[in-house]
């Protein structure tokens, strides 16, 4: 039977995986909301982010408490510190999904993203969601190989982000400034969401291998 | 005479203060660079960010080493964990100053910010720089009162950020999409820079009072 200390360590890992699932789902729904001017779904995403924030707070409190009471050394110490950092990344990913949903809400009943850019934004949403799910798997399996592969998927996100800017700057009738602002911000939110997923993956590589 | 342990704790605080000064100066120079299409200054800011990153890495290594070797409890433990979080905020502020400089470089020899928006951007730069300097003072003095006041200054940044969007959306001849993209991103960088300064201030309040 495992002791209470190791049960608490495991529960911190389980919370991180739960956060990964929640932010993946939040980004999926935020993308649907902004593609369809779905106000109800946007409101749902915005409200649901409180849950991610609460999980982070609870996780951080437990981690700090473990540090103070158990004075862990070496591997366990590194695991706890890394968990604190991963929870900060995941919490921020939740904020960014909420930001996408807020743009959807702001422009309702209009659709913030022009029709011909929607495929690119949908693809950014799909990749972001997948990256978030993978962070959960990487944390669950302490999977360094999957963590290394995740960077390649972030490259795909960066390519889509650049494609979005190119499309905004197309020849012909220019987009309204409001559209340029919305698309620029939304593109940035997806890109940063992916950056934080990469950050989680890198922290796992560091935790397992000691390489940064 | 203080022991080595407390000297190391002090040196972590000194590094945070040094980082505050560097990111304040980086934002000042990045703002000058983007106002004047000053390529040399932009390149200088971009290159100088490596120093902030190196300070963060060294600080984090020292903090983790202290945690592992000294197994600090209560106040010292909280100080070290808070230092790790502040160093992450300050490192990100350095990135954001570098992002502003990169927009300056991208548009050189053009000036990325239209003339009539420059006063607002200059003011955002001034406030951001001041916030960064204040984080240094707050860390140095563990100054909860100054930390609380810092939020009011961030409100000024948010107002300027909204004013920037309003100006972009003015009546009359619309801005080119490229300008809308640049101003949107730059505005966001300043706003996020200020958010991280507020985060440092809040962490000090938490460290000293235990309130979050």
Describe the structure.
The structure is a homodimer of 212-residue chains. Chain A is mostly helical and 212 residues long. Chain A has a single domain, classed as Methane Monooxygenase Hydroxylase, Chain G, domain 1 (Up-down Bundle). Chain A has helices at 4-36, 39-70, 74-107, 118-141, 144-168, 177-209. In chain A, α4 runs antiparallel to α5 (144-168) and α4 packs parallel to α6. Chain A is elongated, with a radius of gyration of 19 Å. The relative contact order of chain A is 0.15. The model of chain A has no long low-confidence stretch (mean pLDDT 95). Chains A and B meet through α2, α3 and α6 of A and α2, α3 and α6 of B.
**CATH architecture assignment name of chain A:** Up-down Bundle
What's the β-strand tally of chain A?
Answer: 0
Number of distinct helices of chain A: 6
* Secondary-structure class of chain A: mainly alpha
Q: What fraction of the residues of chain A are assigned to beta strands by DSSP? A: under 5%
Helix residue percentage of chain A = over 70%
| Quaternary structure | homodimer
Which fold does the CATH topology of chain A refer to? Methane Monooxygenase Hydroxylase, Chain G, domain 1
Instruction: Characterize the largest beta sheet of chain A: strand count, sense, and whether it forms a barrel.
Output: none
- Low-confidence segments of chain A, given as residue ranges, are none
Summarize the structure in short.
2 copies of one chain form a homodimer. Chain A has 212 residues and is mainly alpha-helical.
């Amino acid at each position: 039977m495992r002791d209470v200390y190791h049960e608490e360590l495991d529960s911190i890992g389980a919370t991180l995986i739960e956060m990964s699932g929640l932010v993946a789902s939040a980004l999926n729904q935020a993308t649907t909301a902004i593609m369809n001017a779905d106000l109800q779904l946007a409101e749902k995403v915005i409200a649901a982010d409180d849950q991610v924030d609460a999980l982070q707070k609870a996780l951080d409190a437990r981690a700090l408490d473990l540090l103070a009471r158990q004075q862990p050394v070496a591997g366990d110490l590194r695991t706890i510190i890394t968990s604190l950092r991963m929870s900060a990344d995941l919490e921020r990913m939740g904020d960014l999904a909420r930001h996408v949903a807020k743009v959807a809400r702001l422009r309702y009943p209009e659709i913030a993203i022009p029709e011909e850019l929607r495929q690119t934004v949908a693809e950014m949403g799909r990749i972001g969601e997948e990256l978030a799910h993978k962070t959960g798997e990487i944390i669950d399996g302490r999977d360094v190989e999957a963590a290394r592969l995740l960077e390649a998927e972030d490259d795909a996100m960066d390519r889509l982000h650049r494609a979005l800017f190119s499309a905004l700057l197309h020849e012909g009738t220019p987009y309204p400034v409001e559209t340029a602002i919305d698309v620029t911000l939304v593109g940035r939110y997806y890109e940063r969401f992916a950056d934080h997923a990469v950050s989680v993956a890198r922290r796992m590589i560091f935790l397992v291998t000691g390489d940064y």
